[in-house]
TrEMBL record:
Keywords for this protein: Membrane, Transmembrane, Transmembrane helix, Transport
Highest rank taxon of the organism: Bacteria
Membrane-spanning segments: 35-55, 61-80, 92-116, 122-142, 163-182, 194-216, 228-247, 259-281, 293-310
Entry keyword Transmembrane helix: yes
Protein name (Swiss-Prot/TrEMBL): Membrane transport protein
Native source organism of the sequence: Anaerovirgula multivorans
Length: 313
């Protein structure tokens, strides 16, 4: 039981600290936005670089990358199919049932409990997701609400993303053996140690950011609850059908991978969803998307903590 509290309390305290900083107006949204950019471009990129440079790259992992990309598309089309049901119909539904807060919630939750040394298990799920989000998810939103057309510029932006660059570099260093050389060479090792220091910033800062953003709008609560229920049911159902029928036949039985997969599936939609909805659609849709993400974030954290408690027995 003591072990449970040791893993859960840091999550709750850091999120509470974020709430406190907002309540006392010690930090403002503009400051949080700047910190978030540092976290995404530097700290999270460092986490992913470390994860992929140390990961044991197996042939089946590359199949998982592809499968996860396909699975993200299935989630999107499931949302589109559910959108045909009158009681569920809403233009945002396909975007609610697809896309995950992989970096800004999945990584800090997972590493807090299972350790940074196991982040590779979660990271292999995130590669296909990142391609989906930037290649199809946000472009589809622009095409739906603003009638924009898909362009090669979108593909170029994917590979210019700090997160994707860190993944590619980490995998390249891993495959070529340069990763081992960097860690063993006394001079270059300073570079690697610096990246480790930066990666250690990610989890506490992200959880503080999450806590800062937890505020609800009662006006949209009913629709948000409906969205969260539809998302959790559809994603967990389709996700585990895919795992049992396909992924389990590819990946060797691995309990830590199972934990990572569960953690991934319970994550809320991207924290940036409301920003893109606001840019492409109406203010009302932006506020609804934000309220849904906040509610789903609370639900996801609660489910994750409950999962950790149950896992200990």
């Amino acid at each position: 039981m003591t072990n449970i509290f040791a893993k859960v309390i840091p999550i709750l305290l850091l999120i509470s600290l974020g709430q406190y900083l907002r309540y006392k107006e010690i930090l403002h949204q503009s400051s949080i936005d700047e910190i978030k950019k540092v976290v995404i471009d530097i700290a999270l990129s460092a986490v992913l670089f470390i994860a992929f440079i140390n990961m044991e790259l197996k042939a089946e992992y590359f199949l998982v990358f592809i499968i996860m990309f396909i699975l993200m598309n299935i989630f999107y089309f499931v949302g589109g199919a559910l959108n045909r049901i009158n009681r569920l119909s809403h233009p945002l539904l396909p975007f609610i049932t697809s896309g995950f807060t992989f970096g800004l919630l999945g990584i800090p939750l997972f590493t807090t409990v299972f350790g940074i040394e196991n982040i590779g298990k979660l990271s292999i799920l995130g590669v296909g997701h990142e391609f989906f989000v930037w290649l199809l998810f946000y472009p589809s939103m622009a095409m739906k609400f603003k009638n924009q057309k898909f362009s090669l510029k979108t593909v170029k932006e994917i590979f210019q993303s700090p997160l994707m660059i860190s993944i590619i570099l980490g995998m390249t260093f891993n495959i070529t053996g340069l990763g081992i050389w960097i860690q063993e060479n006394p001079v270059v090792n300073g570079f690697y140690t610096t990246i480790q220091y930066l990666s250690n910033l990610a989890t506490p800062l992200i959880l503080i950011i999450v806590g800062f953003g937890l505020k609800f709008d009662k006006k949209y609560m009913k629709q948000s609850i409906k969205f969260v229920m539809v998302r959790m049911i559809s994603i967990l159902t389709v996700g585990y059908v895919c795992k049992y029928l396909i992924i389990d036949r590819i990946i060797t039985a691995d309990l830590m991978f199972d934990y990572a997969y569960f953690t991934f599936l319970i994550l809320p939609p991207p924290l940036s969803l409301s920003i893109f909805v606001g840019a492409y659609s109406t203010k009302e849709y932006e506020e609804l998307a934000n309220n849904t993400v906040v509610l789903n974030t609370v639900v996801s954290i609660a489910i994750f903590i409950l999962f950790i408690v149950i896992k200990q027995f």
